[in-house]
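quick q for whoever's on today - can somebody do inverse folding on this one?? i tried earlier but teh output was garbage lol. tokens:
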């Protein structure tokens, strides 16, 4: 048995909106957001579908947190600070209140972690799979939103954190890395299930980076988007790609998986371009996630990775495709 629409909003969702003035306790027809003076709103939306984007064995709190984090990653890639979100959910009629309670607990946990607030949304019943949409609002100083189109020849190419954990984590979560150590498998699966959007780094790059994107489709694909939008190319030094200790352990035994660091999706790191000296100034006082220079923007239009001997490595440019 489940609660009616109004009861659900009052019991589960209104408390998530209590601290945001413009949400009006979810009792008005719409919410209002006032960006600070000289600031502009950034907005992005993501939808996930049961058995397409989550494999079915995740707990509802993890599903909620991943939903928010994927959008938080896009807001960070624009150089913006996240503030509030709308939530649209289509839930199967027979879904229990326990599932919804756990879903809401996940939302609450990440609201606190990222200082964001629910400000509205909609919920409907469906006989089909669960469909969840989050629309995230952030803000950035006017004119300073990071675009994909500003990279110029000679700019360094940088990435945050480590690459390949998302796609190796998906394999781990599916049980495909059973030969690996258990804690390695657990750490990678966790990286897949719970991305770490770079919400501190992104806003720090506003006014410094010339272009940015988050790594959701895979480094080569997402850097390709920057290259296309900027009408430039890029040269990546493959041996510089930062790997986590866990990913390193996996690829030591199975070197065919190494290419996944360049092409795998779901990392939710930031890839960005900037003049070297500007980044050096930022990093002098930076204590957050690691930032690694992996290559250089070129005037020609190809995105290529080279090995330690300068030989070009071939990767399919398609990257990771969501099913
Ligand atoms: Mg993105």
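ok took a stab at it. sequence:
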């Amino acid at each position: 048995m489940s609660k009616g629409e109004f009861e659900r909003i009052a019991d589960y969702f209104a408390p998530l909106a209590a601290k945001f003035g413009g949400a009006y306790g979810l009792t008005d027809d719409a919410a209002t957001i006032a960006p600070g003076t000289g600031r502009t709103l950034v907005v992005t939306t993501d939808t996930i579908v049961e058995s397409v984007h989550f494999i079915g064995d995740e707990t509802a709190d993890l599903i909620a947190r991943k939903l928010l984090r994927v959008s938080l990653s896009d807001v960070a890639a624009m150089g913006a600070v996240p503030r509030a979100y709308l939530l649209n959910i289509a839930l199967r009629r027979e879904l229990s209140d326990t599932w919804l309670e756990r879903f809401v607990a996940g939302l609450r946990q990440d609201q606190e972690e990222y200082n964001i607030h629910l400000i509205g949304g909609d919920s409907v019943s469906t006989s089909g799979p669960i469909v969840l949409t989050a629309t995230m609002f952030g803000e950035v100083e006017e004119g300073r939103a990071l675009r994909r189109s500003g990279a110029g020849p000679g700019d360094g190419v940088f990435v945050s954190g480590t690459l390949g954990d998302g796609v190796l984590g998906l394999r781990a979560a599916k049980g495909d890395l059973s030969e690996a150590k258990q804690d390695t498998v657990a750490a990678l699966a966790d990286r897949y299930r719970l991305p770490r959007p770079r919400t501190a780094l992104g806003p720090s790059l506003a006014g410094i980076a010339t272009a940015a994107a988050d790594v959701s489709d895979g480094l080569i694909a997402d850097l390709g988007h920057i290259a296309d939008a900027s009408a430039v190319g890029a040269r990546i030094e493959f041996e510089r790609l930062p790997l986590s200790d866990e990913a390193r352990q996996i690829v030591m035994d199975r070197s065919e998986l190494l290419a996944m660091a360049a092409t795998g999706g779901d990392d939710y790191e930031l890839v960005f371009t900037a003049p070297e000296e500007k980044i050096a100034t930022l990093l002098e006082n930076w204590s957050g996630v690691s930032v690694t220079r992996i290559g250089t923007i070129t005037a020609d239009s190809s995105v290529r990775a080279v090995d330690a001997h300068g030989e070009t490595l071939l990767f399919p440019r398609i990257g990771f495709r969501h099913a």
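fwiw The domain at 5-141 is CATH 3.30.1330.10 (60s Ribosomal Protein L30; Chain: A;). also The chain has ten helices and eleven strands. so keep that in mind when u check it
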